[in-house]
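Subject: design request, 332 residues
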């Protein structure tokens, strides 16, 4: 039986950057994110007894080498949970630029976790799905659920999981993805993160302060305090990138356009526009603003930078697609 699942990307408001246990992908601090409605991954999984190994097609290209090995290792977790050794045919389509700092790995492994477990005959709770998705990509744990999500740091496999957060009923935010560069980044998140943990003298302070910031962000979301949400998010991003710049060797995901975009955000805010910025492991900038200001801000940044700007609302949880939806996708 082939099962196709869709999961949406998420962007962290309080960042995850560093593992306390690289094997189980236990983070050094709790993180909080917003799931995005505009970016997602569709993944189909079919366990086939005639296969002698897993196969993996991404965006129409058959994968091999390290990409396939990583995926097969993840599938072994599903097989172990399901109690069988059948290999699978996996087909995935990213409706988001891959490896460009727009969280494609989060939606990819969340979709794979749901599709693979259902195809294997498992009916897991969202909490257990977040724990499995975490093993493929840490941020994928936050793409199982929709809206605003916290990934609890935890201390082991059972206690490191994600779940939705309550927010103020009138909180109506948008996140604008300013797509400065579609190209895959030169340094992967996993490599950059490992280098920072191992060599940056700022890392211990980053992990400690981020745990405090996660608690403050929960309170700000529940209170619907936009300025506090924005301040916490922007500071978290800048602190994360500061740890990278202090690593050995130092590195950054910023490019000149990233810095120019940040300068423009600060200039607009000085003029009274309610906007804050966040940046993940890549050059692309995400803007946080009230929904009422989203269209005006998008127009300003398109005119200023000549780059695409995608307006995202809080997105839905991961789900299995119906046959009708799959047929509609095939004809799209």
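Subject: RE: design request

Done. Sequence follows.
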């Amino acid at each position: 039986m082939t099962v196709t699942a869709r999961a949406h990307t998420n962007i962290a408001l309080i960042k995850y950057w560093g593992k306390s246990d690289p094997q189980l992908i236990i983070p050094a601090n709790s993180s909080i994110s917003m799931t995005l409605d505009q970016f997602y991954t569709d993944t189909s999984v079919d366990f086939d007894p005639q296969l002698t190994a897993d196969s993996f097609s991404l965006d129409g290209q058959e994968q091999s080498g390290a990409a396939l090995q990583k995926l097969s290792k993840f599938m072994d977790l599903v097989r172990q949970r399901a109690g069988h050794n059948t290999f699978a045919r996996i087909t995935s389509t990213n409706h988001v630029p891959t490896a460009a700092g727009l969280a494609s790995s989060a939606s990819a492994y969340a979709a794979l976790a749901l599709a693979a477990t259902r195809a294997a005959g498992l009916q897991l709770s969202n909490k257990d799905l977040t724990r499995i998705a975490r093993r493929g990509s840490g941020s994928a744990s936050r793409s199982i659920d929709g809206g605003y999500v916290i990934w609890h740091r935890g201390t082991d496999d059972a206690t490191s999981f994600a779940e939705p957060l309550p927010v103020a009923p009138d909180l109506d935010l948008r996140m604008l993805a300013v797509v400065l560069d579609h190209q895959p980044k030169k340094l992967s998140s996993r490599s950059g993160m490992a280098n920072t943990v191992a060599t940056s003298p700022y890392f211990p302070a980053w992990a400690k302060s981020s745990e405090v910031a996660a608690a403050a962000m929960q309170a700000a979301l529940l209170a619907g305090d936009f300025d506090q949400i924005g301040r916490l998010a922007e500071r978290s991003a800048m602190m994360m990138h500061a740890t990278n710049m202090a690593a050995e060797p130092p590195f950054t995901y910023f490019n000149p356009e990233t810095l120019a975009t940040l300068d423009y955000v600060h200039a607009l805010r000085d003029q009274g526009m309610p906007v804050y910025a966040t940046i993940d492991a890549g050059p692309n900038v995400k803007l946080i603003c009230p929904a009422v200001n989203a269209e005006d801000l998008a127009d300003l940044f398109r005119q200023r930078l000549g780059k695409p700007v995608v307006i995202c609302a809080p997105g839905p949880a991961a789900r299995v697609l119906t046959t009708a939806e799959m047929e509609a996708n095939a004809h799209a």
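The mean pLDDT is 94.
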